[in-house]
Amino acid sequence: MTQVASNTGQPFSPDPYVGSTPRAGLGRPAESSPPTRPAVNVGTTERQLSMAGGAALALIGLRMRSLTGLVAFGAGASLIARGYTGHCGVYKALGKSTAVPAEPNAYHKSGIHVSVAYTIAKPRAELFAFWRNFANLPKFMDHVQSVRVTDDKRSHWVVKAPAGRTVEWDAEIINEVPDELIAWRSLGGADVDNAGSVRFVDAPGDRGTEVRVVLDYIPPAGRLGKYVAMLFGEAPEIQIKEDLRRFKRLMETGYPPITDGQPHGQR
Amino acid sequence: MKAVTWHGRHDVRVENVPDPKILQPRDAIVKITSTCICGSDLHLYDGFIPAMRSGDILGHEFMGEVVELGSEVRNLQVGDRVIVPFTICCGSCFFCKRDLWSCCDNTNPKAALAEQAFGQTTAGLFGYSHLTGGYAGGQAQYVRVPYADVGPMKVPDGLSDDKVIFLTDIFPTGYMAAENCNIQPDDTVAIWGAGPVGQFAIKSALMLGAAQVVAIDMVPDRLRMAAEAGAVTIDANDEYVYDKLMDLTAGRGPDSCIDCVGLEASGHTIDAYLDKVKTVMLMATDRAHALRQAINCCRKAGTVSIPGVYGGLVDKMPMGAAMEKGLTFKMGQTHVKKYLPNLMQRIIRGEIDPSFVITHRYKLEDAPMAYDQFVNKRDGCIKVVMNPN
Ligand SMILES: NC(=O)c1ccc[n+]([C@@H]2O[C@H](COP(=O)([O-])OP(=O)(O)OC[C@H]3O[C@@H](n4cnc5c(N)ncnc54)[C@H](O)[C@@H]3O)[C@@H](O)[C@H]2O)c1
Ligand SMILES: [Zn+2]
Ligand SMILES: [Zn+2]
Questions:
Q1: Is the CATH number 3.40.50.720 carried by domain B171-331?
Q2: Is residue B31 exposed (0-12), middle (13-18) or buried (19+ Cβ within 10 Å)?
Q3: Which pLDDT value is given to residue A160?
């Protein structure tokens, strides 16, 4: 558990793709490796409540027949889905489970674990090359302010935190298979221990490449930790998914679609 | 510039707004010479489509002259006359590469919203709610066209606006609806709705070789236009649609049925009244009377093709009938760009003059009156074209 307490001088690496680094002692739930069927992490009573609440929300969504209405419908629908599958992405991301007693484990209490996949209609090598130059990451990672590449393996990250703050760390690439995999982790002394990997796998047929990103953040205890949790909000998966969507659109079209700056009448 | 803006149910206005600007290197600015009101705009006008914001500029059927180009649009030049498909497409995603343009992955800036409503995002559309991107539309003097290196098509010299303007939407829409029926030479095709989309579906079904086309509506002027095109007509106010269709096909049912009505169908049967009550009480979003009837009438193993727009949830779908009869459903926003070369050629060869559908012409300033006339189908109004400049 010492690794989890951070700032031990030890590199942190819970990532499933880092290869050589021993991961014992992190107490990672089995479901955190590449997702197969979602594991049940929502207790039975809560499942029933979710379904009832979901149905009610969905109905309210319909009655409002508006933007908020439709979104309420969507949220309702995902609550219903959660009731059916007994799986909640948000709980998983926050390491929370009401189905089994919570483990007394710092990682489970506050760690953020996200795994998102996206298909991009470009060859593996092209996507790999763009990502491998970490200085490109802020072009599509919304919360990353800058990444300065310091040598072949190392980089310095500055990440936006709420209230105009930033958090920073040095990272090193710990595993790399050309055109297939990049894994990195923060070095000892980071504001936020973290590790990540991206895998590039040929998609079926001529669909391009499946890009799978796994990220782990262990916010430190105290105020800064709270900032980091706020940074990712309630649904870190959604933020990372939006990052990946930006990556896809950048690679496929060169320019993301925008409407800011177009004319409109009186609002 | 002047633009037609949406402010709520039955409230459109003509406002002075800033001119559009190039925002991306793949943008173009088009000065609009012709712009139309579509049946789809009526769903916005009647408040059936969510995610509209007060002040949104309407309009998705427009053409005009290129007046400004972003640095990466190399296939167009300032001064070119272009038609602009209503679906905005990137040209390089999985779907664009397969001619499935309205499913483009990359052009909806509000993708997360669309994903929540529909599971996946579809293409951005001009002037059609924030679910499809919130792009400013073309009922205006100028419009910004994103990804202008992909969508717009140059108009060959000598073709008037009237002949080509409907290539932006309703001609390809009627054509795709007919093509989706996989029409065989001896087929009967029944078409619900004889509005502009229905009219082009009728012409297209005949072009694709249907032996008999039946048009169903309750507006006499529209049925008259359908009859002129060569369709057998059924006035749904006077006749039992099912009985008449069975009579016309000696009990088999039409081989294909096309719903050119969409989510605001009217009718006098129990299901239609229930729909009306429910949508007024806000318990359902769409009124699907025509679609239900199409499913019921369609012959076994036939095709139901649905160009009519649905925005949300439909109650009481006869899935039993559809399943037991082994029907095929085909639908979607039109993949406009796929059809442009073929349909442009048909116009050049004189096989069709799409301007037959125009009944009224107005200045842009008259838009509020034109919407009111079109939605109420007054004075034989079938298609309105406006000239904003
Ligand atoms: N799929 C696409 O890409 C696409 C493109 C353009 C339009 N559309 C949709 O196509 C539909 C038709 O468009 P339009 O411009 O012709 O609209 P419109 O409103 O002018 O025409 C609809 C017609 O349906 C008739 N109708 C209503 N209830 C009926 C019923 N129960 N049985 C038979 N007829 C009935 C009306 O009298 C009217 O003539 C709309 O839903 C529109 O949104 C879809
Ligand atoms: Zn239209
Ligand atoms: Zn595309």
A1: yes
A2: middle
A3: 86
The CATH architecture of the domain made up of B2-169+334-387 is Alpha-Beta Complex (3.90)
Which ligand lies nearest to the CA atom of residue A252 in the structure?
Answer: 3
Determine, for residues B109 and A258 on separate chains, whether the beta-carbon distance falls below 8 Å.
yes
Half-sphere exposure of B221 (CA within 13 A, CB side): 14
| CB < 8 Å to A63, chain B | 282-283
Domains delineated in chain A: 44-94 (no CATH), 107-253 (3.30.530.20)
Residue A205's CB: how many other CB atoms inside 10 A?
7
pLDDT digits (tens, 9 = 90+) for A113-165: 889 999 999 999 999 999 999 999 999 999 899 999 999 999 999 988 777 88
Q: What is the pLDDT of residues B367-377, one digit of tens each?
A: 999 999 999 99
Report the Cα–Cα distance between both ends of chain B, in Å, rounded: 10
Residues in A whose CB is inside 8 Å of some CB of B read 62-67, 69-71, 73-75, 119, 121, 207-208, 238, 242, 245, 248-249, 252-267
Asked if B2-169+334-387 and B171-331 have one fold, the answer is no
| pLDDT higher than 70, residue A32 | no
Name the band, by pLDDT with cuts 50, 70 and 90, for residue A238: confident
| Contacts B52 to A, Cβ<8 Å | 67
Query: Would you say B5 and B144 are in contact if contact means Cβ atoms under 8 Å apart?
Result: no
Q: pTM to 2 decimals?
A: 0.84
